[in-house]
Amino acid sequence: MLINDVINGKYLQHTIKILITLFTTMLISFSSYCQECKFSADDMFRDVIINGKISKFLNFDNLDICIAEVATYAKNYPPHFENSSERIVIEKKLDKLIKIFELLDDKTRKDQVYTEFLRRYGSVLAMSYNLDFPNSYSNTIEVFERIIAIDPEDINTNLLYGTFLAGSIFNDSAIKYLKKANDKGSLEAKFRLADFYARNKDTQPQAIKLYEEYLKIISKDQGAYHSFQAIKGGNVFIQNRLNGQNAPITKLK
């Protein structure tokens, strides 16, 4: 009940004090690791007055800043760090983000506000997969499957889930979700789908078509342009994953 109310914003003043006390240690500890998101526990919530009473909502804006800082390093695979110390710092931040989401998660929820929460949770877990956290693959799948069950047509969910699957071990199912997001107008899904098709010589003609469509709209995307030229020139290199570990970069034949 309490976790449900934190996300929903429907609880009394004395409950606010209990919850703030519960999360203070974790959130302040997390903030101490963050250079970009120097928030206190209170900053993770926002006050909203409803019928003359103060209710608490999660402050998604501040939470997103904290997620974005970790994403700078861990959004893509392979992740990029200047040194091992930098990786350790980011792993600590990510671990604390995951613990925050675990505390607030309520698997009985099926409303729109909760799907916004779950999308962020799924993104955080996907980054933990890129950093080879234990059980990160199954945890990420479980959260995204819950979102899909609630709202299977949501464009952002299909994009995020498809992108995760495209970069994971069992990635063929990525096509279903990336196609759906692309059909609904997501340019990023078009780019991700083109990138996915580029990995297989048999589907490279589809990749070329998608890149052409994408570059007509985003002509200054140098990454997409170079990928497009690489396919046409037969020089496509793919970074694969094997059991959560780095595999050699191989050139498609």
Account of the protein in words:
With 253 residues, the chain is mainly α. It has helices spanning 2-8, 13-33, 60-74, 84-104, 112-130, 136-150, 155-166, 174-183, 187-197, 204-217, 222-232; strands at residues 45-50, 53-58, 237-238, 241-242, 245-246, 250-251. The strands form 3 sheets. A two-stranded antiparallel sheet has the order 1-2. The radius of gyration is 20 Å and the shape is globular. It starts with a helix and ends with a strand.
Strand content: 5-15%
Describe the main β-sheet briefly: 2 strands, antiparallel
Low-confidence stretches: 1-6, 10-36, 242-253
H-E order: HHEEHHHHHHHHHEEEE
Protein structure class: mainly alpha
Shape: globular
The neighbouring-strand order within the major sheet is 1-2
- CA radius of gyration is 20 Å
Q: How confident is the prediction overall: mean pLDDT?
A: 79
Give the N-terminus to C-terminus distance in angstroms: 56 Å
Number of helices: 11
Fraction of residues in helices? 55-70%
Q: Total number of β-strand segments?
A: 6
